[in-house]
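retry 2 of 3: previous attempt timed out while embedding S-adenosyl-L-homocysteine. Reduced batch size to 1 and resubmitted. Inputs unchanged:
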Amino acid sequence: MARAGAAYYAARDPFHDFATSPELSQAFGECLGLWAAVTWQAMGRPDPVLLVECGPGRGSLMADALRAIDEMMPDFRAALRVHLVETSPRLREAQALRLGDAAITWHEDITTLPTAPMIMLANEFLDALPIRQFIRRGAIWYERFVADGMFIEMPSDAVLQEEAPEGAIKEVNEAALDFAAWLGRWVTLHGGAALLIDYGPGQTGFGDSLQAMRAGQPIDPLTTPGQVDITAHVDFAALAAAAGAAGAVTHGPLPQGVFLQRLGFMTRAAMLARLAPASAQAQLAAAHRLTAPEAMGRLFKALAVCDPRLLILAGFEAA
Ligand code: SAH
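retry 2 succeeded.
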């Protein structure tokens, strides 16, 4: 999954295969930008502060966020340093084009970020990291591998705590768990908060959530590896536990629809619709898609990982 994902993001424009929130509505990145601005104030306005995005895709979220920040909180704009964590050279180019004259530092992974207070945004980043799948057979777990283009199962010595029924599938995303633990340590030591938005259930459970998409349609993940987008559900409860064990406070996961409405997303979308009547219909349809429970409003969730000294976090007050 890691190799297929790297090949896919390096060579293709993933946005032919799926639509993400920042590509659907500019109000998404604007609201997240203002969330970062309010968080910066709650942190005591550190200067400099890192504004980090992991997996920034085409750079749309960051472009929308920076524009909103520029307009609403120029002090924050002056204090922030943009750092993007992106492995794909092709998408780095797209980000550079999109972000124009903003000074940006790119990183292969989070370990090279400079030491400073940080506000991090990540939308549909963790779902792209590789999972392992274990299957319960009798009293032991087997692990699913790929060999000669097929799934095979081998007995595993993995120690998984849960009792599980016969045939249950347990997914473990070690890269995402390491990431959450790292974040938890970072914000506790250096200050800050991270907003992780992705899709997955609220509770840890069993099931096969590996999915591949091509041109908006589900496809067998093994037919053309490296040419299709492969993702899996994010286990928010496990991420929160990993970040919490590292010292951080976590908020959520909150359904994306609820979180966005609390940030004023619908008001902003309605304003955009009024400002540009020609695209009003599309604006409102996108806003509905991002927030409606039957669309992206419930399956997508927001989880915040923050410094325990940060008492209030916009959007999570009444969570
Ligand atoms: N956040 C964007 C893009 C989501 S697609 C949006 O919402 O539109 C996933 C993004 O994560 C892409 O930019 C991809 O290149 C990047 N990515 C995938 N695996 C990565 C990894 N291991 N490290 C850093 N970036 C990664």
